[in-house]
Amino acid sequence: METGKLSPRGAVASSATVLDFYRPHRRVVLLLFLAPVFYEVWWYWKLFAFTRREGFPRARRFWWLLVPIYNWVVLYRQFDDLKQAASRVGLPALNSVLAIWFVIFSWLAGNSSSRINSAGGSFVAFVVSGVLIAIMGSLVQPTANAYLKNQYPDAAPIGMTLGEITAIVLGILLFALVALVTFA
Predict the structure, then answer these.
(1) Tally of CB atoms within 10 A around 104
(2) Spatial CA neighbour of 21 closest among 157, 171, 163
(3) pLDDT digit string, tens, across residues 28-81
(4) In whole angstroms, what separates CA 117 from the centre of its chain?
(5) What is the C-alpha separation between 110 and 94, in angstroms, rounded?
(6) Of 33, 86, 126, 165, which is the most exposed, with the fewest CB atoms less than 10 Å away?
């Protein structure tokens, strides 16, 4: 793809920058589960870059995720802006309220996994946390992909980037370490 042909608004942008959040949703869902924490953080980084680049009204910088409790408000606003942008162009809208509840319950389950005394119970809470965040990804990523496909008709999901591969490797190592410590 040539530079400048992707943006329907006439702005010149490279395909790597404009479409860096356009990913196969099944891959995202699987990796949100299999590569916890690292892939999730990387995915949020890309989500925030996407909402800022598209000019969503309540787009914020990624670093707002470091503020406890308020981070859920900021993340909800990113989901809700995506929902509104998708519905404006006639796409099926994401349920932003449900998506943020999955994030909240995932973070609560993940936090409780370190406080459970039994190894099995701790691992179950860790896995439940991964399942919940993967479900959130299954709600958000298809909507983002549909929005990007609508805005940039010639676009296609991109392959893995070095940042994504790094997040995957570190996340899978974390998952394996948690499993090893739990069952060793």
Answers:
(1) 16
(2) 157
(3) 999 999 999 999 999 999 999 999 999 999 999 999 999 999 999 999 999 999
(4) 30
(5) 24
(6) 165
